[in-house]
Amino acid sequence: MPDDFDADRARRLRRLADARIEALADEVVAFLKGEPSRLAPEDLKLASAWEEYAIQVAGEESIDFEIYCDIVRDVASGIASAARRTEQELCVLYSERYIDWWYDQEGDPSKAPLPASIHEWLIDDIIRAVNLRAEQDGDEINERINSGRCVQDEGHEDNEDDDNESKEAELK
Prior knowledge:
This protein is mainly α. It is 70% helix and 0% strand. Helix 2 crosses helix 6. The relative contact order is 0.13.
C-alpha cells in the first residue's frame, strides 16, 4: 500500500472519530437544554441549564459552577458508557491521553489500554467538545444579557407596539 493511502485512511478515521465525539457532546448539550436553569439569579432569565453552564464557561464562574461540572461529567459518563467498546476505542484513537499513553508504552503493539482508561479518555473528549461549544454559545448569551434582551424578548422586540395595535383593533 502506498503511504498516501495510509495517511488518507488515518485522516478519515480522525474525522469520523471527531464527528462521533461531537455527536456524543450534542447529547450532553441536549440534556442540559432540557433542564431548567436553577442556580442563576432570576433576573438573568436564562432558558435552560445549558445557558447557565455556557455563560460560566465563557465568562465568570459562579460558586455553583462545580455543580454543573459534576452534572456534565455524569451525563458524559452515562453517554460514554452506553457506547460500545469498539466505538469508545475508535473515538479515543486521536485523544491527547491516548497519544500520551502510546508514547509511555513506547509504541509496543502487544499492549492495549485498559477499558476503564478508554472510558475516561472518551469522557474527557466529550467534555472538551461540550466546553468548546459552551464557550461559543456562552459568548452569544452574554451578549444577549448585556444588551438587555431576554429569552422571552427574542423575536418580539416590539412587544409594546404589538399590545398597542391589539388594543386599537379592539376599540374599532
